[in-house]
Amino acid sequence: MKMNKYALYIILTFVCYSFFYSNSNAQQISYYNNETYNPFSKTIYKPGTNFHTSVKPYSINKISQLTNVDSLIYDGMKMPLGNENFWKRIFKDHLLKWENKDVSIRINPLFNLEAGKENEEGQNTWTNTRGFFIEGNIGKHFYFYTDVLENQAVFPNYYDSFVQDRKVVPGQGKTRNLGERTHDYAQSTGYISFNPAQWFNIQLGQGKNFIGDGHRSLLLSDVSYSYPYLKFSAEFNKAHYMVMWGQHRDLNIDSKLESNDARYLDKYSATHYLTINVGNRLSVGLFESVIWAAQDTMGQRNFDWAYLNPIIFYRPVEYSIGSPDNMTMGANLKYTIGKHNVLYGQFVMGEFKMDEVFSGNKWWANKQGFQLGLKCFDLFAIKNLYFQTEYNQVRPYTYSHREVITNYGHYNQELAHPLGANFRESVSFLRYKTKRWLFSAELMYAMYGKDFDDEVSYGGNIYQNNNKRPGDYNHEIGQGLKTNLIYLDASISYLINPRNNFNIAVGSRLRKEKNDLEENNTQMLWFALRTSIKSLYTDF
């Protein structure tokens, strides 16, 4: 305990010292988190850039070392001159901005005005999202970002079923019903980024993080609601190291404590991720994360100082404190083929016992999964024709735990893949961009085992206690209620303002979910006027 206090003292002393003596510039963070409209992907994946693509959100400072950032954002479109009037800025630039030697502040609107028709049930759908974000630099050391969003919506059938079941809108927080199907919800995120030295960055915020090169991540994804975190990052030439502590919440309040003013149950996470670029084409990343409850079987625990050390393996620490905690480990790989093709993959592991893994008995705690994917920029030498295909597979009970609160989840959603565990999935994208026009299509197929009985856990729902499993052996992917899911989405959009991805879009969505007990179909058309900055997922 004393050593942990000394370690904290040393870290804080170093931060304070760096604040006064560093000459480094504040690290600006990219707010372009919607991968469909991300202007930087093609550039950062070029061989030889030495960019750590698996750590998101991206650093604008690092991208600016590769090329002119504004040229990527506008991509051949006419850049603003800087003296436009208010109305022209709506369509060309930051809505409001103030810049001088020491302070730079930029304000932009956020909105999603969407209307649609779900044909299967004849339901009119709509979304009314209004908000704004503010970002900027204060002095040489600090960058900040904050946003706020207010929403009302009527969702298509499958999306509404998810919200009714979990009491949260995917990735956007808790909802309040205004009517039979009308939902009201809000969220705000924000963080400060501090650079005490050129190679070192500290972030304190409420937001999301993503580790990986794919559409999905089996290590840490941004599908769930935002959470408070403290993140330290260090980059030395070809190595990037990140350590992050987060606070998460379980919305399943103990019935004995449930009241109008009852707090949700807290839990914490500590995460390490080290990625190294080997040569000009290969990148290797190692990941570990531990989840523990603020209050466990031994009583009130809160933040465990044993996990404060930023350069230690968590598994021995977990054992040394007699831990009931949940460990997740894994790896991320990326290899660039030629100039425009990227092969990537992940491996995740919750438990590993050598004799059980190779025995062939399908032990329940063989908690493993993997990802394999391919990205192609300028496919067939056609400029801005993008193709991506990805396969994900996760065994039953991965991410779950014997205590529900210590599962790998937050706010009634998964911290990794939105299907939880016990699934196989294939997802592919085809996009073509020409000037301001973007044509996009997605096809996803998944087979997974549903948990249909609250008294038995088949390993798909990470919010089920895995002690409820039906035996210790013969567990395989798809057990439980075997379900097939097909999802197809196609859209055409016209980009109006590249600064905040203000666009007009029209599209269609087809979804079919079928098992032995039911069949759920979705067929819908939609039209939207929106700013596509945040990553929000509808493919589940």
Describe this structure in words.
There is one protein chain. The chain is mostly beta strands and 540 residues long. It has one domain (24-531): Porin. 12% of the residues lie in helices and 46% in strands. It has an 18-stranded antiparallel beta barrel, surrounded by 4 helices. Strands 1-11 form a two-stranded antiparallel ribbon. It has a two-stranded antiparallel ribbon with strand order 6-7. A hairpin with a 2-residue loop joins β22 (409-410) and β23 (413-414). The protein is globular and about 70 Å long. It starts with a helix and ends in a 9-residue tail after the last strand. Mean pLDDT is 90; it is low at 1-10, 17-22 and 255-259. Residues 1-26 form the signal peptide. Keywords: Signal. InterPro entries: Wzi_sf. This is Gliding motility protein RemB.
